[in-house]
Design goal:
The protein is mainly alpha-helical. It has one domain: Hypothetical protein af1432 (Orthogonal Bundle), CATH 1.10.3210. It contains 17 helices and no strands. The radius of gyration is 20 Å and the shape is globular.
């Protein structure tokens, strides 16, 4: 395969009267993808519930009572049902006891975590129907693992970012998911390219999507009126542009942590993986990323193991996110 992986610079938008850029019919799949990414119609991106935007803007100190939170979430009946279901799952439910109303569910899950999970569910509703069942389940499971890992890392190196780290982790892959919705088959092509070249999916994704993913992420999250610090934290993935212990640094390392053999091996220990994991699993963390987070190897290993131990929580929460309404 001879295609370059340098798809990080989308072409300039065509003038209003110009036809969209296209690749010749004889071009390789990667070249055709490059042309399509350069002319994505960002105006067709999905909208999100205003409730999600309000939740993203609320810090832990703004959540004064479960009643206030429940009154807000009751505007989204599907989200209410999923939170109650999550509270009754093996991850949160008490043996022999069932929760049948939202306030009980919120008290069981925890107010702050329930608000963060509700935010993720609402974001998921906006794009789930555009994803195949395989990718939907896998990517939301990965997103929840990034969220938990980012929260653990932030608690160690930058506690004031802990809440944002979890919230941002849940939608860290949102740009990739939206590109898949706008250009179906992109994720399959990424994985096939990684397998054919003996590379890791993360590296191929970064190279093939690059600036296109960053542009989509910025445009979508701005459209959803999310706080600027969360938008920048999610969109910026260039190690050379990331500050030490920043939200971007925490998220990037948590992303690799969620792809580690320790975590993926635990997640799929007793259930079939939707894909062959060889091209997905990261054996060692990137030195560029570990240098951006002031956390020693021993602490990173402990955090990774803690993340791997949270399999039931990861699965139950991801299932709530990936269900199509």
């Amino acid at each position: 395969m001879t295609d370059s992986l340098d798809f990080t610079t989308p072409a300039a938008p065509p003038p209003p009267t110009a036809r969209p850029a296209t690749a010749p019919a004889s071009a390789s799949p990667l070249a055709r993808l490059q042309a399509k990414l350069a002319t994505l119609d960002l105006s067709s991106m999905p909208r999100v519930s205003p409730v999600a935007s309000r939740l993203a803007a609320m810090g832990p100190d703004d959540l004064e009572s479960s009643k206030e939170f429940c009154a807000l979430i009751e505007q989204e009946p599907i989200c209410v049902a999923r939170l109650i279901g999550l509270a009754n799952s093996v991850a949160y439910g008490a043996p022999g006891k069932k929760f049948n109303n939202l306030e009980q569910a919120v008290l069981r899950i925890g107010l702050e975590r329930a608000a963060q999970i509700a935010f993720g569910m609402l974001c998921g509703q906006a794009i789930n129907k555009g994803l195949s069942p395989q990718w939907r389940e896998f990517l939301w499971l990965h997103a929840i693992a990034v969220a938990h890992g980012a929260s653990l890392l932030a608690n160690k190196v930058n506690p004031q970012e802990r809440a944002n780290a979890y919230l941002a982790g849940m939608i860290y892959d949102i740009g990739t998911l939206v590109i898949e919705c706008l250009q179906p088959g992109t994720l399959d092509l990424l994985l096939q390219t990684a397998e054919n070249r003996g590379l890791k999916l993360g590296r191929v994704e970064n190279a093939m999507l690059g600036k296109a993913r960053k542009a989509v992420t910025h445009a979508l999250l701005d459209r959803w009126s999310l706080p600027t610090d969360i938008v920048v934290g999610i969109a910026e993935r260039d190690p050379g542009a990331i500050d030490m212990n920043s939200l971007s640094a925490i998220l990037a390392l948590a992303d690799e942590m969620a792809r580690s053999g320790t975590v993926l091996g635990s997640v799929y220990a007793d259930t079939p993986a939707p894909f062959v994991l060889d091209s997905i699993v990261v054996e060692d963390f990137s030195p560029q990323l570990t240098a951006l987070v002031s956390c020693g190897d021993a602490d990173l290993e402990k955090i990774t193991e803690r993340l791997a131990d949270q399999v039931q929580v990861l699965r139950s929460t991801a299932q709530s996110f990936s269900d199509v309404a």
